[in-house]
Every structure is written in structure tokens, then in C-alpha cells.
From TrEMBL:
Belongs to the Omp25/RopB family. This is Outer membrane protein. SUPFAM superfamilies: OMPA-like. Its main location: membrane. It is found in: Membrane. It comes from Novosphingobium sediminis. Keywords: Membrane, Signal. Residues 10-202 form the Outer membrane protein beta-barrel domain. One of its GO terms (cellular component) is membrane. Residues 1-24 form the signal peptide. It comes from the Bacteria.
Length: 202
């Protein structure tokens, strides 16, 4: 699964380099970028195949990259699509399952989403997003002969919104909030993120 988001981002970037006009509008065309910020994961009931005794949470630093394409549907309306890949630092969650110690380690995440925005000025884009999210998770349950580990991919959905500002013709900066629901099989796995990013627009 890890190869898929990397290939998607690389393909979007290559397409952008080939398709970019000589004098690009900042919010019209392909772009790539990097992002960083804070996330809070809240997990309860169940994760993957493991039941959880009580709700637990964890705050962590998250880093990532993204690539996408903007299309100006009118002078003020911008729509597009984006693929992103991220991983958090020191984000292992500790919980309990049937009286045993359980650790939950999100390894990496990727997302595919659509964006729609409104240019409040020629340089400031207010936008919302929504789409698909996936996180690779490894669990370790304590046992008599050592921890029993398992890995699984959690599918979910994501929504968010933010503000992107054109610093120059090719460089823009963004700040946004995202909510992701990765709960499945009766479990709860909510993720709240506050992110900043810098984009290069081709």
C-alpha cells in the first residue's frame, strides 16, 4: 500500500511539470508541497482486530507531502484534486485490552481528496476539502511469550478546510484543519489535525 501514494504524488508532479503554462496563475494548474503540524488521535472500543478497554488519545507532530491540481472554474471559484502522504513522530498510543497492555503504532497515512475554494482576493483562497483516507497501523498485545504483533490498513474519510495565500506567482502558503474518521468494525479512531504547508505552483 505504501507505494501507491508515492506513485500518485510522483505522477501528479510529472504531469504538472509537463502541463504548466509559461506564465501560470498561482491557483490554476498543478502544484506540489510539504506540510507539518499537530495531530491528536482518539481511539476507543476497537482498533483493527483488538478490543480496547477504555478510550485513549495521543498528541504528535506530523510531517508530510502532497501534490495536486487546481482549476479556476471562474474568476473566483477554484476546484481541484489532491493526494497526500504523511507520518507522525512519537505517535504510539498505549492502551489496555482484556487486562493486557496494548500499543497502537500508526505507521503512515495517505489521502485522496477533492478541494473547492473561493478567492476572497486575487491572492487569498478559502477552501474546503473532502475525500478518502488510509492509515497503516501496527498493534502489539503483551503475552506470556512476548508481544503479539499485527498490522492492518484502516480505511476512512476526511473533511477539512483552510486558507491558502499566494506569496508569489509560484509559491503559496496554507493553514488548515482536518478531521479524519478511521473507525471500523465497531471501533472509534478519530484524528484531528492543524497543519501548515508551503506549495510550489507550476
Amino acid at each position: 500500500m505504501m507505494k501507491f501514494p508515492l506513485i500518485t504524488i510522483a505522477a501528479l508532479a510529472a504531469f504538472g511539470a509537463a502541463a504548466a503554462p509559461a506564465h501560470a496563475d498561482t491557483f490554476n494548474g498543478p502544484y506540489i508541497g510539504v506540510t507539518a503540524g499537530w495531530e491528536r488521535s482518539q481511539i476507543a472500543d476497537r482498533v483493527a482486530a483488538q478490543p480496547i478497554t477504555a478510550e485513549t488519545s495521543r498528541d504528535a507532530l506530523v510531517l508530510g507531502g502532497y501534490a495536486g491540481y487546481n482549476f479556476k472554474a471562474s474568476d473566483r471559484i477554484v476546484v481541484g484534486a489532491e493526494a497526500g502522504f504523511s507520518a507522525a513522530i512519537n505517535d504510539t498510543v498505549r492502551a489496555a485490552s482484556a487486562g493486557k497492555s496494548l500499543t497502537i503504532d500508526p505507521r503512515y497515512s495517505f489521502d485522496l481528496s477533492a478541494r473547492a475554494g473561493y478567492l476572497v482576493t486575487d491572492k487569498a483562497l478559502v477552501y474546503v476539502r473532502g475525500g478518502y483516507a488510509n492509515t497503516r497501523v501496527r498493534t502489539a498485545l503483551s503475552g506470556l511469550n512476548g508481544p503479539v504483533t499485527a498490522s492492518d490498513n484502516l480505511d476512512g474519510w476526511q473533511v477539512g478546510g483552510g486558507l491558502e495565500y499566494a506569496i508569489s506567482e509560484h509559491v503559496s502558503a496554507r493553514a488548515e484543519y482536518r478531521y479524519t474518521d478511521l473507525g471500523s468494525n465497531g471501533g472509534q479512531f478519530d484524528r484531528h489535525q492543524t497543519l501548515v504547508g508551503v506549495s510550489y505552483n507550476f
